[in-house]
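User: Is it possible to get a 3D structure for a protein together with its bound compound? The compound here is zinc ion. I've pasted both below.
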Amino acid sequence: MSTRTRPCPRCGTRYPFRDAAGKTITHCRSCRVPLRPKRFHMNKRRTRWVHIYFLSRKGLTYHEYKLRLQAVGVDTCKDLNREQYARLFREGRKLPDSPKWKTGKRRIAA
Ligand SMILES: [Zn+2]
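Assistant: Yes, that's possible. Here is the predicted structure of the complex:
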């Protein structure tokens, strides 16, 4: 478990990301202002999920997938930030699932 902390932007009190009960601390307890969210970065698990979701589940071609990345402002999924990642999936959810995905026939090549 991480022991990293983040400060309140107003009073500077530092808080760990989670309290003793394991609940995420999102606001300063004395000022009630929101704390900065945890830094977002594309890790291996997220990039793999993006690939599976769009190439296998939604059945996009690699080219179509790249166009979607470019539509949110990046060339590679490794450069996605939190907002772009959310936008990519917000749009992606509207796509129908690939029929091959539905029957479980299509598997992504590792
Ligand atoms: Zn505060």
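Residues 8, 10-11, 13, 28, 30-31 surround zinc ion (CB under 6 Å). Strands lie at 5-7, 14-16.
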